Q: What sequence folds into this?
């Protein structure tokens, strides 16, 4: 939905601003907000994938080469975004493992 990122950042700012008054409530709110953001991302990614699919996979037609080429480019762009998130997650996991080891 439009403005979703802005709303998430505004909500985050409110959570951060209230942290000193009630740290536990701040962390609970942060967990909820991040959970909501992850659900939104998943839904939006799936919606985008379905939209790409509907552009090339029409009933009764094999699709012309240009339409298929455009679909392939769109899939690549979507995959690049997902891969960037997975790269970040891999780095975060590696850092987490490194920081949890005892000296």
A:
């Amino acid at each position: 939905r439009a403005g979703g990122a802005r709303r998430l950042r505004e909500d985050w700012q409110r959570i951060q601003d209230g942290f000193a008054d009630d740290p536990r409530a701040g962390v609970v709110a942060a967990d909820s907000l991040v959970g909501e953001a992850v659900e939104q991302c998943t839904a939006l990614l799936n919606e985008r994938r379905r939209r790409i699919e509907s552009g090339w996979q029409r009933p009764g037609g094999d699709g012309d080469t240009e339409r298929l080429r455009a679909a392939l480019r769109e899939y690549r762009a979507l995959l690049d975004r997902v891969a960037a998130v997975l790269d970040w997650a891999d780095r975060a996991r590696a850092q987490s493992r490194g920081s949890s080891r005892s000296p």
Summary: The helical segments are 4-18, 23-56, 65-100.
